[in-house]
Write a structure and sequence with these properties.
The chain is 26% helix and 37% strand. The chain is α+β, with helices and mostly antiparallel strands. Strands 1, 2, 3, 4 and 5 form a five-stranded antiparallel β-sheet that branches. A hairpin with a 4-residue loop joins strand 2 and strand 3. The mean pLDDT is 87.
């Protein structure tokens, strides 16, 4: 049975990367983004990371290690290289706060042989936001008197 939370984490990683890339691609070029996960593991204690306040429910998370490749097709090689250098510079210039706000704990550029491809190793943290409450126990009464 597939891990739904892992699938949600991968979708969130795709969305986070797409949100960091410029929306405009130079004319005559097409950008392809490929996310290849290498490891998905639970965060916290078996995936549990804490309680969410509203709605009151448990929060669960996953950590994804992946390689993100950004490739460009079309156009001439010089324009493609310039475009990829700009993307690389923009992504590596992000402040730690900007990266962490999107769940990216680590973003390291890795060398690739293809001049029309840019690649990064990423460490992504996903924490689910519950949509309905679960009746989480928050208080334990310990000063009870035994019967009889």
């Amino acid at each position: 049975m597939p891990d739904v939370l892992a699938q949600d984490a991968l979708a969130a990683l795709d969305s986070a990367i797409a949100g960091l890339l410029p929306s405009a691609v130079p004319g005559g070029m097409t950008r392809n983004v490929h996310v290849e996960p290498s490891r998905i593991r639970p965060l916290g204690l078996g995936g549990y990371v804490g309680n969410h306040v509203g709605p009151h429910a448990g929060q669960f998370g996953r950590r994804v290690q992946a390689r993100v490749s950004i490739g460009v097709t079309g156009g001439n090689d010089t324009n493609a290289h310039t475009y990829l250098v700009g993307i690389g510079t923009e992504l590596l210039s992000l402040s730690r706060a900007e990266r962490v706000a999107r769940g990216l704990q680590r973003l390291d550029r890795v060398p690739v042989e293809d001049a029309r491809t840019l690649a990064f190793d990423v460490d992504f943290e996903f924490i689910s936001t519950p949509s309905t409450g679960e009746g989480v126990i928050t208080d334990l009464v310990l000063d009870i008197e035994p019967d009889g």
